[in-house]
Structure to design on (175 residues):
């Protein structure tokens, strides 16, 4: 797990649904997440998708990710370069999808950080550190950090399965 992340703050205002993140018409149009990333926030904030860079952090001022259970909302944000989303509240399914796919979702009020401000995020330590402000949050459990470090839920489970010896029920040792 990366001890700290250097990120650029991107501010998003209002209640954000998964349909705001990636419009439903694109959900089955592309399987390539880089193509989905081009349409992030297309209806709500036209042109915003083109401004994202690797290691961006979204700071939301209201509930983020309400609505459907579409995983494409998370995978398209990741493909756009978003590494962390900080909001006072999350839609429950979106929140879990974030962690399952490897996007850090942090419940905190971080409105003190300006658009474009460079900050340091210490997920394990529970801090967001800017030039003039520090925001504290409850760090996620170590198992969640390990899951993100592995690349998400599926890679995490696969790595554990590969490490376990296989025992076939009813097998006979012929030695």
């Amino acid at each position: 797990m990366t001890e700290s992340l250097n990120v650029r703050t991107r501010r998003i205002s209002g209640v954000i649904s998964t349909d705001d993140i990636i419009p439903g018409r694109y959900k089955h149009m592309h399987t390539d997440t880089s193509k989905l990333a081009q349409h992030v926030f297309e209806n709500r904030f036209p042109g915003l998708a083109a401004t994202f860079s690797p290691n961006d952090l979204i700071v939301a001022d209201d509930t983020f990710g309400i609505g459907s259970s579409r995983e494409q909302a998370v995978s398209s944000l990741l493909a756009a370069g978003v590494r962390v989303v900080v909001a006072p509240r999350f839609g429950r399914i979106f929140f879990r999808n974030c962690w399952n796919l490897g996007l850090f979702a942090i419940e905190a009020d971080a409105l003190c950080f300006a658009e474009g401000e460079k900050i340091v995020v210490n997920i394990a330590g529970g801090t967001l550190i800017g030039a003039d402000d520090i925001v504290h949050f409850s760090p996620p459990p170590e198992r969640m950090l390990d899951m993100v470090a592995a690349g998400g839920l599926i890679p995490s489970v696969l790595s554990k399965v590969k490490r376990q010896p296989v025992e076939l029920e009813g097998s006979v040792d012929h030695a």
User: Anything to note?
Assistant: The first helix runs from residue 18 to 21.
